[in-house]
Specification:
Layout (H helix, E strand, L loop, with lengths): L11 E6 L6 E2 L4 E18 L2 E26 L2 E16 L11 E10 L8 E10 L8 E4 L4 E14 L13 E16 L10 E11 L13 E9 L9 E10 L12
Parallel strand pairs: 1-4, 5-7, 8-10, 11-13
Antiparallel strand pairs: 1-2, 3-4, 3-6, 4-5, 6-7, 9-10, 9-12, 10-11, 12-13
Length: 265
């Protein structure tokens, strides 16, 4: 969960490694503010004496002040070396829900990790939540998980994700799973009630994965704002592709005369 009072822009992230350089402990639950941007770089590799040029695209968080990361090498309990590196930006792993925030100022909450490419001795930020800084979470509607029913307004779209057996790639043989995603007209905060050990509170929810128990809108209706009414629950399986899901019990089109629909408990 994000805390409003926790917003460090300039900090030291301690990264410890064994002498072999493979065992890392990275600072967790980091909150960093900056502008999300697309970036690309040219990588030249020499493979078997042949030069290979590759354009690598990524998403980065550009901070107002540089991030200073320190790394220490220890043997046992004794520190034998320490270095500090300043970064004007850091590469991020950004969930699909937050792609619309690219180009905007965002407060990102996540964990540092080392790149999976061990030839690139780099640190990435795995983003769990990104909040649009122009939209304070204090001003967002707060709704609750099941068994309460809530109303949400937004636009639906069908998306395909890789399913069993590996949940990694349809092209490699995984079964395609089509899911319905609603982009909300207004972001929401989702809270738990007492004795709820199944769901987790979430802030700044921009998209929901929705499941229809009965009829669903037509393709043409999905292009317009739709009102959904149902119960929310938190993601907990590989079939869930957004933080929060809704089991839809009823839906209706937004009347053209209604201009400012709000979320209702």
């Amino acid at each position: 969960m994000l805390k409003n009072y926790c917003m460090p822009l300039f900090f030291f992230a301690s990264i410890f490694a064994t002498i072999s350089g493979y065992a890392w402990e990275l600072e967790q639950n980091i909150i960093i503010e900056g502008v999300l941007r697309r970036a690309e770089r040219t990588i030249i590799k020499n493979l078997n004496g042949e030069k290979e040029t590759k354009i690598e695209k990524s998403i980065v968080l550009v901070t107002d002040q540089p991030l200073v990361l320190s790394r220490s090498v220890t043997i046992g309990q004794q520190q034998i070396a320490s270095t500090k590196t300043s970064y004007s930006h850091i590469e991020v792993c950004l969930p699909e829900e937050f792609i619309p925030l690219i180009g905007k100022r965002a407060r990102c909450h996540g964990n540092f990790r080392r790149s999976f490419d061990f030839l690139r001795d780099e640190i990435l930020l795995d983003v769990a939540t990104a909040l649009d800084r122009e939209q304070s979470t204090h001003h967002l509607k707060t709704v609750f998980y099941e068994p309460e029913e809530v109303e949400v307004v937004g636009v639906l779209q069908a998306m395909v994700y890789p399913g069993p057996p590996e949940y990694t790639s349809v092209e490699m043989g995984d079964w395609p799973e089509e899911v319905m995603i609603m982009t909300l007209k207004d972001s929401i905060n989702v809270e738990t009630k007492d004795n709820d050990d199944f769901n987790d509170p979430e802030q700044g929810v921009r998209e929901l994965q929705v499941v229809f128990s009965d009829s669903m809108p037509s393709v043409n209706q999905m292009k317009e704002n739709i009102v959904l009414r149902g119960a929310l629950f938190h993601a907990h399986t590989a079939h869930h592709h957004r933080r929060v899901l809704m089991m839809v019990k009823s839906w209706s089109a937004v009347p053209p005369s209604v201009k400012n629909l709000e979320f209702l408990n």
